[in-house]
Amino acid sequence: MSIALRGLTWDDPRGRGPAEMLAKAFAQTDENRDVTVEWTVQPLGGFESASVAEHAEHYDVIIIDHPHVIEAASAGALAPIEMGDDCYIGQSLASYRWNGRYWAVPVDASSHLAAYREDRINLPPVTWADLFKQAERGVRFGLPLRGVHALMALLTLLASMGKPFAAGAAEHQRGAGPPCDADLLLAADLLQRIALVSVPASLAWNPLEALAALADGDCDCLPLTFGYAHFQTRGVRFARIPALNSEQPPRPILGGTGMAVSARRPHVETAQALARFAGSAEVQAELWPRHGGQPAHCEAWRRLGETDPFYRDASSSVAGAYLRPRCLGWNRFQSNAGDAINHWLAERSGGVINLIARLRLLWTEATDNADKTVGTERSTA
């Protein structure tokens, strides 16, 4: 009996190429010769318009960001996936675990990295103090600050300070909330200073747009952006993000994606087998990168790191990346807080105390309503 699966991925070589390859490779295995996969591709921003629970009504396998996991699983939209002994870089696998089960297979890994063009600067700044000195010498900086990515930048700065957002939150509970006002003030002030020495277009960029601008010569360095290996073909190099100081290493936030399985479609077991196949060592280490993907499997990063500068230079950052909260209400907070920070940076005149008060209000509203609504999250990848 033939089985037709439907999948949802995102419109980037990291999403399109591996998806097309996966359908063909899966159908070549003995037990799945009658399985076909039809993929729908959306822009990165397309994941803003509907929740994973809504996607699960129409797609058997869905590429998701890890903060979706708890809300989608608790709504009964996802089927748990039995995992084997595969190793995934950093907290990639842990990011999809909730209530003692796994709700997606890591297939893609990234974190915040610095990106630069060697023909414009020799090396990216090692510390934020170095960045401000380079800016005075005429280096043009930029960073993605549109919507949710403004919050992503703040989260990385807080984690690098040793004051991560919602520290101590249990994986299935609401988070402990933002750090204290003093820590938020320091991180927000630093973010504002970085934004002030960045090109104005930064406020309208997501990571893909920022990297494209860097490749096109619209800036010289992005001190914070999610890393995309395929931009190496356009002359972009990647490195560790700047540190607060020489004694305190930075801690970027974790990105990447996982392949989740809908619990509301008819072929759950076949979809689970497809997800496990996508996350297997050989697919991740060989087929996935060969077709434009950026794998999550440890073996893939080990092999690729021997010859590919991206995996060599990004490995320690991704392996040590901070796992942002996945508590109920987080997705709603993440979307609204990103817009609030972006607006604050654009205004350039609003006091940081007002921003902190706004973030705390948004947190309270999101978590108080967490049991009543299922939020949507803007994809970060």
Structure write-up:
The protein is of the alpha+beta class and 381 residues long. 39% of the residues lie in helices and 13% in strands. The protein has helices spanning 13-27, 52-55, 69-74, 128-136, 148-160, 181-196, 207-216, 268-278, 281-290, 298-305, 309-319, 330-347, 352-368, and strands at 3-10, 35-42, 61-64, 97-98, 101-102, 105-108, 112-117, 221-226, 236-239, 257-261. A hairpin with a 2-residue loop joins strand 4 (97-98) and strand 5 (101-102). Residues 167-175 and 372-378 have low confidence and may be disordered.
- Count of folded domains: 2
The CATH topology of the largest domain corresponds to D-Maltodextrin-Binding Protein, domain 2
* Mean pLDDT across residues: 91
- Helix count? 13
Helix content: 25-40%
What distance separates the N and C termini?
Answer: 36 Å
Largest sheet: 5 strands, mixed
Q: Tell me the structural class.
A: alpha+beta
Using the 3D structure, state the CATH architecture of the largest domain.
3-Layer(aba) Sandwich
| Low-pLDDT sequence parts | 167-175, 372-378
